[in-house]
Every structure is written in C-alpha cells, then in structure tokens.
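Reminder: ligand-aware prediction takes two inputs, not one.
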Amino acid sequence: MPKTLTAAGVLLLSAALLQPVPADAWSRKGHVLIIRSAVKLLADDAATPAELRTLLLEGIGDPAKLDALEAFVLAEPYGSTQGPLAAGLEQFSFRPDELGSKHSRVAAFDNTEDRLHYLDLELFHPDPERRGYAPDGSNRPRPADLPRDWHDGRYAKAGLLPFRVEQVYANLVRSLAAGTSAEEAWLWMGFLSHYASDTFQPFHSTVNYDGLQCPVNLAREKEARYNLHFEFEDRIFSDESPEIRALLPEFWKQYRDTLGDTLTAGATRPAARLDPYASTLEALFDGYELLPVLCRAGADALKGPAFDRRAWFAHAEDLDGHRLSVARLQGQRMALATLAVRNLLRQAWDDAKRSRS
Ligand SMILES: [Zn+2]
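Here is what comes back for the chain with zinc ion:
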C-alpha cells in the first residue's frame, strides 16, 4: 500500500474497485438467486429424473441453501455474495460477467466476452434514421428484421446474446450426453443460467443501456445525467438503508407470485419445446417494452438534484392488468428468468437423453 494514500483515499479506492461493471445484468446476488431457485424448482419436482436431481444438488453444494431462499433475499447481508462464490453452479452462473469485464476473447464468435451479454435491438431497424433509442421506445424493430446468422456484421457491435444462449445450450446437451464430467456440466449449466437470465434485463436490449437517453436525462445538464442501469440490477439488494430494505419484501413477493408458487407446489412443464435462440430473442423484445416505464420511474426519482431511490422503486404503472411498482417489476423479470433457466436445463437433459439412445 503506497504511503501517500490517506485512510480516506484508501476507502475511496476500495469503493471504486467494488463498482460493478456494466455487464452485470442482475448482480452477483441476483444470478445466485436465479440458479438456486431454478435448482430448487427442479429438485422439488417429482417429475425430475433422479440422476439430474443428484447432479444439480451436488452442483449447488449445501442443500440447506435451497430451503433458505427467503432469508437469503430478505435478511442475508449483501456482502455475503461479494467474495468468491461457491464452486460449481453458483460460481459458473456469474463467471461470464467476470470474463466480460476482462474482454476475454471468444474465438467462436470472433469477438470478446463482453459482447455476448446483450443485443441492441435498434441497430436492426430498417430505417437508418431510427437506429437510436426514441423517447417513447418506438424504435423497436420487428423480430423478422434480425437475421438468424451471427456472421451478419451488425451483431459484432449490437451484441450476440441469443446466439450465445443457443451455443451454450448445445454445449450443455453434448456434455450431458457424453457424461464427460459433472464439473463440465455445471459450467455449461451455470453459463446457460447466466446468459438466459441476462435476456430478461430490459437494459440489455437497447442502445439506451444506461438510461442516459431517457427523456428525463436528456433534459438535464450532461454532468447531471444519471445512469439508471444499476438501479434495476443490484441496488434492491445492495442498498441496505431502512427505506430500501422496506421495499425488498415487495420484490420478493412478486418474485414468488410470478413463479406461481412452484417453489412449494412443484413446477409445471412448458407447453411447447423452447428454441433457445427464439425464446431468448422474445425475452429481449418483451423487456424492450418496459424501457419507457423505467424512463418514467427515472423521471420520478430525478425530480430533485439527487437521485431519489425510494421514488424509483415505488414508481408504479398498470402493466397487463396489474399495478406493478419498479420493485415488483424487477421481481417479475427475475422470476421469469428463473423459469426460463429451469425449463432450459430440464429440456437440455431430455435432449441429451434422446441423443444417447
Ligand atoms: Zn451478463
């Protein structure tokens, strides 16, 4: 430690090093919650093959964690997930963000890891004038505007998330079919959990990934603009002030409600087979619809000179017939991510079984 650093300087430096990188879609705690919940859904489901259940439980480590999800969210200090994560599924469910912040090379896509976590939809709008974020979110292209070929030059910049989900899914099926090693299966399961979850983060579907192009920010002086991304990511967990802690049960209730009580009643199977690429793209398009809501929440929170986090999480709108606050909306998106992870893991197991027989 250089002698010239004062104690305050050391504190500032430490705080800067602990700042999350932009690729952390749901934060370390969020990704751990999603993989634990997905494993619990499968472990509690009587229809889950015993061999898969054993593999998942071994990958999670201490099974007591699965019965303590509520305490993990509501009571456990945020700091518990900020050190090294448990080896196996939890570690691998966050590992892609660590590789992303290092711009690790991924030769299969002739790109770097950080580009695999998002897809900026506007860049595919047929009208070149509309390839930026519009204040009302109306520059969303149509799904048919996106070719299913990652070699299309636009993806190198726009991001490759749906292709990464498809590739990781295929790797998982191959690994399970070959039975190479539990560790390799956990790696692809954890990676699949990570990328599939990222697709439910609205800020990963847009060039307005930081919210700086929301009307409220455009109306402010440049230096007074406020990055909204992290507010819909780790702040619901990391802000341990009493006023935000008081909103955390709203997040948790919506998370549980959206899972449809499957945590205790056993999960139902999806009606149709999931195409890893297409279902991912659909989640990104759905999330894009929420960007104007998040922009308006930002306007509520930025009425004064400082960001009012309580106003942000309390901002509520009618969505699909339900009154949802931003705290609830985050619970809903993360629960949908959990269900997608659960369904893809289960389907990958069945695909692997089929390819062996
Ligand atoms: Zn990510």
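Strands lie at 105-106, 111-112, 316-319, 322-325. The radius of gyration is 20 Å. We will return to this case in the review session.
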